[in-house]
Design goal:
Layout: H1 7-13, H2 40-47, H3 62-75, E1 79-83, H4 86-97, E2 103-107, H5 112-121, E3 128-132, H6 137-145, E4 150-154, H7 166-175, E5 179-183, H8 188-191, E6 201-205, E7 219-223, H9 225-238, H10 244-254, H11 257-276, E8 281-285, H12 295-301, E9 308-313, H13 316-323, E10 331-332, E11 342-344, H14 356-361, E12 368-372, H15 378-389
Parallel strand pairs: 2-3, 2-4, 4-5, 5-6, 10-11
Antiparallel strand pairs: 1-7, 6-7, 8-9, 9-12, 11-12
């Protein structure tokens, strides 16, 4: 692929050339558990990585490899490896990098599944976890300076859309000798590239915006070859590999990633501005709004502000229960980033694993609605919200 190719073109063509066979214009779905070789010498060369090829689909697969390559080029990474889900990507990465006695620094309101790893699983393996106030960068830097193995960032956060200064915190992490990991699911490679801001590894739940059609689960980690190779080795042994059919669906979805994300950016910003003026809405959380606490940081490190916003309704959870069923152009479902608009509450989506008390400690109110804007007409979505909010 030539240098200086735009993300729009890479989303369509990136990572596919070597996978096209017999004149096909689309990456094939390769369903084979194992791959045969005519002689032991060739087989051994592939097994030892001396020549390209595949041995067993728990390790690598041609369709899966094409998906990894497409994400890799979009993120500007040297290497990538994929997983059965976004949480498989998060958990495999953390368990690869951390050992008993290590310390990790992150923030209080990461995605609920990630938070569970921090507060429930890592402590069982004697990994020390410090979770800081997401909006207090000085506090995060002070915690990092005390020494840590990993700094884990998520920006924008799910579901309160807080913004972390990736370049600033990556610099702090590297000064302390830490590996900096950034979850880029909400932003996508179209809006933000954490590796260019100093992160060592970038994670995506490919189920969301990358796939974009709500029909395939997947996760991916990109970064330098040495770290990715370690994570890949952990994944090949634990077996959390991506299925070839899911890889194919994700590849197909990514061909329109740039088109979808730009429309979703526009829709989310227009809807966020409208919600700001509605009397039933107590607060709107979206980094594209000038009133957002870290709008200046978002403008500096993002090219677009994303397709997800959240808003808090007056009257709390009881109001949410009246409003959500009235939405006609929104699935009430535990997903985001799809072509269709999706709405839900943290209690049933991002933080379903957490108790109300745990969500409160993370600064996630029960009256919050997470709204993932689709690619529909923005005025239709606003009219739909208007009629739904009329009962509030």
């Amino acid at each position: 692929m030539p240098d200086r190719v735009s993300a729009d073109t890479l989303a369509v063509w990136g990572g596919e050339h070597e996978s096209l066979v017999q004149g096909a214009t689309q990456v094939p779905i390769v369903y084979s558990a194992a791959y045969g070789y005519p002689d032991v010498e060739t087989w051994l060369d592939v097994a030892l990585g001396r020549r390209p090829g595949h041995i067993y689909s728990r390790n690598t697969n041609p369709t899966v490899h094409a998906f990894e390559e497409k994400v890799r080029v979009l993120e500007g990474a040297e290497a990538a490896t994929s997983f059965a889900s976004g949480m498989a990507a998060v958990s495999n990465t953390l368990f690869t990098l951390l050992s008993p006695g290590d310390r990790i620094v992150s923030v209080k309101d990461t995605y609920g599944g990630t938070n569970k790893i921090f507060v429930e699983f890592l402590p069982r393996f004697h990994v020390r976890v410090e979770l800081c106030d997401t909006t207090d960068h000085a506090q995060i830097e002070a915690a990092i300076a005390q020494g840590c193995r990993v700094v884990y960032l998520e920006s924008p956060t799910n579901p309160t859309l807080k913004i972390m200064d990736i370049a600033r915190l990556a610099a702090a992490g590297h000064a302390a000798g830490a590996i900096v990991v950034a979850d880029n699911t909400f932003a996508t490679p179209i809006n933000q590239n954490p590796l260019k801001l100093g992160a060592d590894l970038v994670i995506h739940s490919a189920t969301k915006f990358l796939g974009g059609h709500g029909d395939a689960l997947g996760g991916v980690v990109c970064g330098g070859p040495q770290l990715v190779r370690q994570i890949y080795h952990y994944r090949e042994i634990t077996g959390a590999m991506l299925d070839p059919m899911a890889a194919y669906l994700l590849i197909r979805g990514m061909k329109t990633l740039h088109l979808r994300v730009r429309r979703q950016n526009e829709n989310a910003l227009k809807i966020a501005r409208w919600l700001q003026e509605h009397s039933a809405v107590a607060a709107v959380f979206y980094p594209g709004l000038e009133t957002h606490t870290h709008h200046d940081v978002a403008r500096r490190q993002m090219r677009g502000f994303g397709g997800v916003l959240s808003f808090m309704l007056r009257g709390g959870f009881e109001t949410v229960k009246r409003v959500l069923p009235r939405l006609r152009f929104a699935h009430r479902a535990a997903n985001l980033g799809a072509v269709e608009t999706i709405a839900g509450t943290p209690a049933t989506t991002s933080h379903v694993e957490c108790t109300a008390e745990e969500r409160d400690a993370m600064g996630i109110p029960e009256g919050l609605v997470r709204y993932s804007a689709g690619i529909e007409d923005a005025d239709d979505l606003i009219a739909d919200l208007a009629q739904a909010l009329s009962v509030a």
